[in-house]
């Protein structure tokens, strides 16, 4: 499929999405959201892809927020419709693991996009933040909630209420990103993480993500019930037989996703 705002490719089980709007620091317009979601949904149904990586074009920006020119014209009804919030909910619900390779600025909507992913690996040049209050509004794509989930209420309030932008190492310290690597090693590190995930049982990986997301959406009690049913389903799979047999036979498992 041909896209205007993103580039896609797949290799060795990884589906790569690159936000390709370098001239505007990879700002996220409505079409950008639509194309990211479509690309992720295509990879989700592609049997050759087990992990998705998303990054930004160029050397300076992962995604420097939403397109401010378009936000300036939004109305009360636009705010109530909340398309960015709905878009990131769709991304969060993709069952295959998503790694954000944060190659530069991840601000506003760009930071929110990274938080809707499962794992965040940042270049040592990256900067992250939710500076929306500087423009008279708040993070509106789920950022007020996902930031709390990742860094805790106190730190989330500090970052959102001050609009501060932090460097990658501070983001790692507070739990906003999982790992910081030298800039030139970013994509290799993201690929290495993806390959580690790909070596595991694919059904187990997908259901583990579903169960953990259930905690966010429905709380611990509901998630424990989802966990019980997910584990029960996995007990019936060929992959479970292969994984346990390989362990007992001291060999590498050959998972089939069945």
Structure in words:
The chain is of the alpha/beta class and 258 residues long. It has 2 domains: 6-198, 2-enoyl-CoA Hydratase, Chain A, domain 1 (Alpha-Beta Complex); 202-248. 49% of the residues lie in helices and 17% in strands. The protein has helices at residues 30-44, 68-72, 76-81, 83-92, 109-115, 143-151, 153-162, 168-174, 186-198, 202-234, 238-248; strands at residues 6-11, 14-19, 51-56, 61-63, 98-102, 105-107, 119-123, 127-129, 165-167, 179-181. The chain has a 6-stranded mixed β-sheet, with helices on both faces. Strands 4-6-8-9 form a 4-stranded mixed β-sheet. Helix 6 (143-151) packs across helix 7. The chain is globular and about 60 Å long. The two termini are 28 Å apart. The mean pLDDT is 92.
| CATH architecture verdict of the largest domain | Alpha-Beta Complex
Query: Please, how many helices?
Result: 11
**Low-confidence runs of at least 5 consecutive residues:** none
Beta-strand percent range: 15-25%
The percent range for helix content is 40-55%
Instruction: Provide the residue-averaged pLDDT.
Output: 92
Strand order of the largest sheet: 1-2-3-5-7-10
What global shape is seen?
A: globular
- State the CATH topology of the largest domain: 2-enoyl-CoA Hydratase, Chain A, domain 1
Specify Rg, calculated over alpha carbons. Answer: 19 Å
Order of helices and strands: EEHEEHHHEEHEEHHEHEHHH
CATH homologous superfamily name of the largest domain?
2-enoyl-CoA Hydratase, Chain A, domain 1
State the total count of DSSP E strands.
10
- CATH class category label of the largest domain: Alpha Beta
How many domains would you count in the coordinates? 2
End-to-end Cα distance: 28 Å
- Please outline the major beta sheet: 6 strands, mixed
Structural class: alpha/beta
